[in-house]
Amino acid sequence: MDVLTALSNKSDYSRNQLQLIVSAWIMSGLAEKKSKISLHDGDVSEDDYDKRSLYSLLYALYRSMGDVRDEHGQRYEFTFNTWGYTWPKSWGEAPDHQRDPQRFGRNAYSGLYHSDPVKAYVKARDGEVHIVEMGCGTGAGAHHVCSNVLPKCTYEAVDMQQAAIRTCERKFVPDLPGRLQATCSDATHLARPKDFADFVAVNETHVTELVGVVTEEDDRFFRKAHHMIKPGGFLVWGNAIPDPTWDACFKFLETLGFELVDETDVTEEAVRARDEDKARIDTYVDQCIEAFHGFKIPVLGAKKRAEADVALKNFARNPDTRLYLNMVERKDTYRVVALQKKR
Ligand SMILES: C[S@@+](CC[C@H](N)C(=O)[O-])C[C@H]1O[C@@H](n2cnc3c(N)ncnc32)[C@H](O)[C@@H]1O
After folding, report:
1. Closest residue (by CA) to atom 15 of ligand 1?
2. CATH 3.40.50.150 occupies which residues in the chain?
């Protein structure tokens, strides 16, 4: 069983199914010549995983863990699949959720709407704007935006992962009747009218990952965003991606008819967030590993435990993992940008 490639984004695995999947993965270590996960820094090569399988595993894990403890014993459900950043000083006073265990994820979503052009657009519509998010994960950020950032907006949260959308339907949609809709779809396949959204939000969505190029999937992704946004509306986008990919994407977005109207580099703040979040992530990974019996299998259990530990920490860009070092070395830069669709 290769958990990095074999799972389906259409499934929402139960805790018992996950126990079996993890045990099968551990036993597969018997036949394995070389692990795909670097024990040194958690790195997994792009060719060695399929994002549909990876996120299927992660969202089923988050849901099956339910409420967990942070490093101070505070209980929360892990729903922001977001690295995020500390609130940049140049943006003024930080939003008032800075004691929340998932505050850096909340900052990332609040930050999408921080810029003056975006604020002016929202104000001119008395806050009544419609947002489509492409790659919403569990919808934790959608819920945060609807509740705390744009309390008069309506919001469609779209992700290709069934397990994540189920969490959104269970935990967030009922809290916002008629305002938040959760849709399970590859965002590039969405059939929506032209020019109907004020904003398309993209927050750490797993696209634009290849160095310096716009892939065929990225091309479809941005064309879909452009199709849905009203003239004068915005693509608001934040992520840590390979630094040369930003310019490749900006050039492509310009050809579609977008103008870059705001850009902040928050890489330093993103590194700081990972440093400050380390104790919470370590505590979370310990709780996950404890929950799966397969890791107690002699010898193989310990080997795969070490792999699971470093891989989960790398996905969270925990200090000293490959993805964290990519930000420190500025191979990946975290930017928050707003692009306006030309009228
Ligand atoms: C790192 S997670 C971020 C999730 C969420 N935005 C957050 O910040 O918590 C990346 C997400 O991108 C989603 N994704 C990647 N490509 C997608 C696509 N083509 N359509 C829909 N979702 C996609 C994945 O399923 C995953 O949920």
Report:
1. 206
2. 89-267+332-341
